[in-house]
Amino acid sequence: MKRAARPRLVCDVPGCGNGRRPGYRLCDRCTARLPEEISVGIVAAHDERRWLDHAALKRRAARFLNLDTTDCPSTLAQPVRRHSPTVSPQRAYELQARMLGERTDA
Q1: Closest-CA residue to 56 (of 45, 48, 67)
Q2: Cα 18 from Cα 10, distance rounded (Å)
């Protein structure tokens, strides 16, 4: 009978995608290139289940290795502009009055 394959273990650094050894959180490449503060922090945060710190350190590692994908020109990666209307309130009032048929000069 054939045994089921174990799932492939992937490095925790976003954008890396290299395989890692069992029991490790980072691949050999990232372990060698990252400063000790970041690599040890990722492992410690994961072991202590501090998920917010773990996610923040993973993002910091990606920025350090220039693997950060948030600078891509994709429209999905652009921050959403909130509370910055492209139409002034006065102009919006004029356009609404025009749509309702109250004014025809706008």
Answers
A1: 45
A2: 6
